[in-house]
Amino acid sequence: MRRRTVKELLVGAKDAAELMVDLAYAALFFGDDSMANEVLRLEEQVDDALVDLRLVCMLAARTPEDAAQLAGVLSLAVSIEGIADAAEDIARVQLKHLGVPSELRDDLRYAEEVTARVKIREENHLEGRTLRELELPAKTGMWIIAVRRDIDWLYGPDGDEVLREGDVLFLQGPGGGVDRVRELAGGTPHQMPAPRETTKLSHLDRAVDLVVELKNAAEAAVGLAYAAILLRDRTLAAEVSVIEDKSDDLFHGLEGWVLRAAAELEDPEELRGLLHLAASSERIVDSAQSMTRIIETDDPPHPIVTQALSEADEITADAFVQPGSQVEGRSLSELRLHTETGMEILAIDRQGRWLYRPRSTRRLEAGDRLLALGPEEGAAKLREWCGDDRPEGEDGEWVESPADD
Fold it and tell me: What is the CATH number of the domain that holds 376?
């Protein structure tokens, strides 16, 4: 069997760990054991990849100089492992039924975008057709981020991929699109109940709000950390540190609200899952911050690191909104950037202040710097929409910035 290269191993571990985070949160919010078990399958894949990665690095380090260069690769591997382990812990909250308040599921089940797992059944309307032919993003709002076919995984499938019966699809998009995809795949709708209506925030509600903030912080930190390394941008690395500080404050605040909420509940046991989830989210942020240390020195990261991140199924790119462009003054929901370009906006830099995970109602302004995650071809389209015509370097990084003029 051909031994995979360092780059291949890094790409595989990174993609799997990111998918683990999405699936772990989704498993908890939907109360879905099958999705949680997918996280455990991926964790084994990440472990195998990182064991091979360490072995390849040791074999490649023939001199002290080689070892010094590859140390950064191993440091990144440790951070990815930390993210994967934290995601596994989140999934086990669901599998062990530690207890998750219904208020938390209500908050995140009806978020603007959710992650879902859908298996293609015997009677379906999907098999034998390419993703391009199916046009799922346009018809359902759901975007396929990965496919599991038996024991093989395909991350970020392209439009020519033909679906088969038995494929397990992993999708992201608006919650209302999940049932539409399930029906196309031959399944039955979830028909999730409507969220409860409250007029007064309880101590538990406040604790749940902080857990949601921690989840958002964890996802943003990972995206910004990869972007910081790929773009060699220390300001982005500093933003990850800001998120880490914020996550510490959120966790400390959460502990106080959980103690107050325990006095209100007949069965405080349901708060255990809440604390496990919050602690795991904080660990993801910590791992993301550790990842950015690779660019804190004057020496550039090992070329393998930037190659692996830039050639992964999804890349991180930035785009500056120019005056008069087609995105200026329009909201993210109006633009439907994810559907039209495949790019997800991770953050917006507006006059030196980063807005993480911007809501769909956020309107873009001239001068905004968008940080986005998605396929390479989507990055070019996003820049075109923004009127950002900066030339690109050979490795995909911008060689100049309007901000430097």
Answer: 3.30.70.1450
